[in-house]
Amino acid sequence: MHNGIKFNKNFPDITESNKLFERSKGLIPAYTQTLAKGPTQWVKGIAPKYLIKGKGSHVWDADGNEYIDYNMGIGPIVLGYCYDKVDEAIRNQLKDGITFSLMHPLEVELSEKISSIVPNAESVRFSKTGCDVTTAAVRLARAFTKREKVLCCGYHGWHDWYISVTDRNAGIPEVIKDLTHTFNYNDIESLIQSMDTDTACVILEPFVFEEEKNNFLKEVQEVCKKNGTLLIFDEMWTGFRIAVGGAQQYFGVIPDLACYSKAIANGMPLSVITGREDVMRLFDRDVFFFTTFGGEALSMAAAMATIEEIKINNVPGYLSVQGEKLKEGYNRIAVELGIGFTKCSGYNCRTIITFDAAAGNPLEMKSLVQQEMIKHGILWGGFHNMCYSHSDGDIEYTLKAYEDVLPVLKKAVEENAVIKYLKGEAVEPVFRKTSNFNLKPKKVS
Ligand SMILES: Cc1ncc(COP(=O)(O)O)c(C=O)c1O
Q: How far apart are CA 123 and CA 174, in angstroms?
């Protein structure tokens, strides 16, 4: 019997998932192509490992168990899995072809569409992955300013210039490592202290989970302007979620360059760099940014349909309303249970559930909640990544599940025995440091 979206008696049968996993051992290093989907983020022995189908906000694993998903492909699924209008656009394009020998009209049409909704999109270029465009933006900024250093805040992808700031930096030359440093969100002093006359660009996620305070983004923009440094927004998560035109529209702070991917094509691989015409013009010749699949038509057709749906249905408004119900609901349940050590926070379209280390090991507490939510038919990674298909029924059911699961956490914490309640191995830390690392030493004044 498969588990469904209900108070199941048993944990899901994951035999097929486990068989596939065994086959991948020694064959696929790290097992996964996307860290957040891989085994380190899921309770081993309990969580399913492979998904084979999705429809709307629901997914089915390799053993046929059904879940409400709150991960949404780690960002791309903004409308819902197998969303009819997008799938129809893909199928229609498929009849004519995928990749061609000359440019495709969709490149023009999609650029015009993006230019009409993204405030800074005087010019537009496409690629495939998020780090394609963050890396292109950094190179462009270096070429434009004739400077070399980069300051960043957030996660920006696997390429040398960024990942060199983390401890997973093997294979990157020291000279590259010396060129990128970080600053802290909502801490303008940490930016000012790191800036110098060789700073080509500041790249940041306009927000992750922490709320923007004291006009931080506007301040960042002013500091950049004064220093002749370009400002780049990495809108991978904020784009098409917080507002149709992204965080730059939401906050009214227009960066020189901006990078989008994830939600733009509801699951098809596409990324975009938008920006000032005088800067982007360098792509004409001096800055080389070309790739075989950059103009691939299925993804562009999907993006045309996705953006249209987002616009006409005010999807960001919907995500905010549904996300708020989950956030407030979670916090209400936690308060009623007297377990203030866990809370849900963040902008409504994407919230995070955290556990206070004062109450125990946060990763173990997260694992316990994950384990129990999975038993209730919810694929839960500690986030509510909202999509347009998360129905009122999904939300109501999820809150009921929390009402059933959080008392288990409370009991386990009170007994100081979370690990005892865990049926599998705990999850590992999320690879996403966003503050207090790789900061440049303070300037001597
Ligand atoms: C904010 C941000 N920037 C850049 C990236 C890199 O995108 P990709 O994994 O598509 O290369 C990610 C990926 O999760 C991201 O979250």
A: 34
pTM, entire model: 0.97
Q: Can you tell me the distance from the alpha carbon of 387 to that of 267, in angstroms, rounded to the nearest whole number?
A: 12
Residue 252's pLDDT is what?
98
- Strand 66-69 to 378-379 pairing: parallel
Backbone φ, ψ for residue 331 (5° rounding): -65, -35
Q: Which atom of ligand 1 is nearest to the CA of 132?
A: 11
| Whole-number Å distance between alpha carbons of 272 and 134 | 9
Nearest Cα to 202, choosing from 178, 234, 232? 232
| Mean pLDDT value across residues 379-408 | 98
Average pLDDT, the chain: 96
237 lines ligand 1 (CB under 6 A): yes
Q: Give the three-class secondary structure for 272.
A: strand
State the DSSP string of 202-269: EEE-S-SSSPP-TTHHHHHHHHHHHHT-EEEEE-TTTBTTTBTT-HHHHHT---SEEEE-GGGGTTS-
> What was the pLDDT predicted at 445?
54
The single-letter DSSP state of residue 2 is: -
Under 8 Å between Cβ of 342 and 406: yes
Instruction: Kindly report the number of other CB atoms within 10 A of residue 174's CB atom.
Output: 8
CA-proximal residue: ligand 1, atom 8 (nearest): 130
Tell me how far apart the alpha carbons of residues 399 and 417 are, in angstroms, rounded to a whole number.
Answer: 25
Q: Is 129 in the pocket of ligand 1 (CB under 6 A)?
A: yes
Which of these, 417, 416, 409, lies nearest to 355 by C-alpha position?
409
